């Protein structure tokens, strides 16, 4: 009798637990099905876009007389970019971009004087630098449960073009016993490199607003930018 009552008690517990377990299973399945449906799902198809950016050249002037020039260019240049892209699904897409990281300049350094007399005639006249790139990147979107918001990462390849120049007058600097005097140096270089970035985007129908960080890494430079822009998706 006691064994029969124990079996009946276990059966009642199973019957009591089963609806709860079934509810959990059904809820999980419902969330799994509803997740993709309610995930951020911007308009699919082709789009174009443009952005303005705060850019950093992240390069220095190098030349045979490079030791005479300041190495680091100032940060925070005005840059911009153009993009053509396609979003094939809510998770994946691709983009072609042209990025202009702006122009950085170094002003001349003043002469060191005392009572109007030059103590060190060596003088830096100035320098400039510019970086541009063309990139092809794959875009991956996170499946967020917010229809109007996207968070995404980008990875691809880029062709980077850099140019810089500088000049100065160094009569007090000697190389092989001879004064350097006037020095002018310039360098133009290009290389393939890695392109990567991440961003966040809100979309309102065909219009998208995005904030992005992007960087190019190559042997001739590694400029980066933070941009704010808009895209338009064609129906």
Strands, helices and their partners?
Blueprint: H1 2-38, E1 45-56, E2 77-87, E3 92-106, E4 112-114, E5 117-120, E6 123-141, E7 149-175, E8 178-204, E9 207-217, E10 224-233
Antiparallel strand pairs: 1-2, 1-10, 2-3, 3-6, 4-5, 6-7, 7-8, 8-9, 9-10
Would you kindly provide a written description of the structure presented here, covering whatever features stand out?
The chain is α+β, with helices and mostly antiparallel strands. Helix content is 16%, strand content 59%. The strands form 2 sheets. It has an 8-stranded antiparallel beta barrel. The chain has a two-stranded antiparallel ribbon with strand order 4-5. A hairpin with a 4-residue loop joins strand 2 and strand 3 (92-106). The termini are far apart.
Tally of separate domains = 2
H/I helix tally: 1
What's the gyration radius in Å?
Answer: 30 Å
Shape label: elongated
Essential attributes:
Porin, two-stranded antiparallel sheet, 1 helix, 235 residues, 16% helix, alpha+beta, 2 domains, 8-stranded antiparallel beta barrel
Could you write a compact summary of the structure shown?
The protein has one helix spanning 2-38, and strands at 45-56, 77-87, 92-106, 112-114, 117-120, 123-141, 149-175, 178-204, 207-217, 224-233. It is α+β, with helices and mostly antiparallel strands.
